[in-house]
Amino acid sequence: MHREYPRALTAALLFVPACWAGEPFFVTYTAHMEDKGDLEIALKNVTGKPGENNRFLGSALEFEYGVTSWWTSEFYLDGQSTANQSTFFTGYRWENRFRPSPRVHWINPVLYLEYENINEADRALLEVVGNDGVADLNVPVHEGRRQVQRELEAKLILDSSFKGWTLAENFIAEKDVRRGPYEFGYAIGIYRRLSNASSPARCNFCRSNIQAGVEMYGGLGTSQGFGLRNTSHYVGPTVAWTLSRGVMFKFSPNFGLTDNSVPILLRFGVVVEMEDFGSAVKKLFR
Fold this sequence. Notes:
Structural class: mainly beta
């Protein structure tokens, strides 16, 4: 009986219907959450060259599931590869988002809580907080690998929709559970579809399948020194293209705004959205 489980899970992945695959941002969260029973699988990548040092590639493999209509849970597996050094797994993250109100408001809040168990060689750069900057990325990965961070991260996510646009703001607080001060950061983004008119038939190249916008994010210091001094900040356009079966490709060049920032980060990723995944799996096991 147990030998049938891998086949059943593969069938569930292949045959559950797909739907629209989220927003184009890499760092900024909107109030969008998974519907109950839906599964999203995403791969987020970022590459950059901090000054004269080695180019790196940071990756995060994400599994996002709609537990209820008001609760979405995500699990991340992070890894990195640095030229002339090494490639290895850097840790995991467990994220949960909660929608306080089922209604749509002018400003929609979502509460976010995440536990991170990652080492200091991590290069996924899913957020920038405190005084994170280019100096952290210049530490040889074999040294950073020895230092494990166990952190709690909280976010207040706000978004508003108007005339086809979506504007999102994130306020971030992070704390190592064992030591160190609180670290703060932010992310803000705005985007829209190129056309709000949807096609009655499946269409890969319709303008409504393309989302474009811009996001900005950075650190806000710590509880021992709040502010913009010695912080890094990035801004960049972001584009996402969704195929008719719910597969989304995303790309965003990010430009560093301070001396503490990497001059250019290139972000790219792919997202697969599957409707009613939970129900499909339950049926296979009955």
